[in-house]
Amino acid sequence: MVSRDSDPSGLPGTVTTAVKILIAGPFDVGKTTLVGSVSEIAPLRTEEPMTVASVGVDTPGSPAKTHTTVAMDFGRVTLSETVVLYMFGVPGQRRFWDLWRGLAEGAIGVVVLVDTRRLEASFDVLGELERHRLPFVVVVNVFPDTPHHSDEELREALDLLSETPLVKCDATDRASSRDALVTLVKHVLGPTPSAPSTQELV
Ligand SMILES: Nc1nc2c(ncn2[C@@H]2O[C@H](COP(=O)(O)OP(=O)(O)O)[C@@H](O)[C@H]2O)c(=O)[nH]1
Ligand SMILES: [Mg+2]
Questions:
Q1: How do residues 112-131 score in pLDDT, each as one tens digit?
Q2: Which end of the chain is more exposed for a tag (fewer CB within 10 A), N or C?
Q3: Nearest residue to 120 (alpha-carbon basis) of 22, 24, 26, 23
């Protein structure tokens, strides 16, 4: 086994499987926050100050929003002794869809972050994923003033298939964000011999 000290990547030598996933969702939903809270490496961010050109085009959920992700967020999290997950946060704005088609190559699936205070902002992204037939899970990022909705209400409003997992998370919380990622890995890979066992991932 290669020790962390001698391996410049910082990965345990037991890691045999690398899994790539995308973190998608509308503008200001918490993608950069989620990648930042779970990543073991300093996340690569490509944030740029928002300019007057985005006024009326990008509508942030909070007036405090001053930066936007122009290319992607990138982070890494070790899920078990054998499995490492690479996360690519992709901007939700329609004008970046050509970019995320390229980023989706080799990805096992997508975590779609949703803000239930602006549910309609997620429709475009969900539609795009269905068109590309990429497996996804829907993760509601719960903000302090998020009203309560039952899972049934949310599933109906988002028109989700019964097999699409729907979970809630707090993107600022490491454990909660990690659970959301594990939901996707389990949904796509399941407990197959080459994939991490369910127990290993919890
Ligand atoms: N309270 C709370 N704030 C959050 C949460 N997730 C994101 N935020 C805030 O929401 C804003 C947008 O988040 P960001 O990650 O930049 O969104 P992105 O555009 O999807 O990358 C930031 O000001 C975050 O601090 C959360 O789970 N809880
Ligand atoms: Mg961002």
A1: 999 999 999 999 889 888 88
A2: N
A3: 26
Ligand 1 pocket test: pick from 32, 33, 113 the residue with the most ligand atoms within 8 Å of its Cβ. 33
Q: Determine which residue's CA is closest to atom 2 belonging to ligand 1.
A: 143
Q: Which ligand is nearest to the CA of 48?
A: 2
Confidence of residue 98 (pLDDT cuts 50, 70, 90): confident
Q: Residues near ligand 1 with C-beta < 6 Å?
A: 25, 27-33, 62, 64, 69, 141, 143-144, 170-172
* Residue-range domains of the chain with CATH: 17-201 (3.40.50.300)
- Count other C-beta atoms under 10 Å from residue 68's C-beta: 19
What atom of ligand 1 comes closest to residue 26's alpha carbon?
20
The length of the chain, given as a count of residues: 202
Q: Give the pLDDT of residue 168.
A: 97
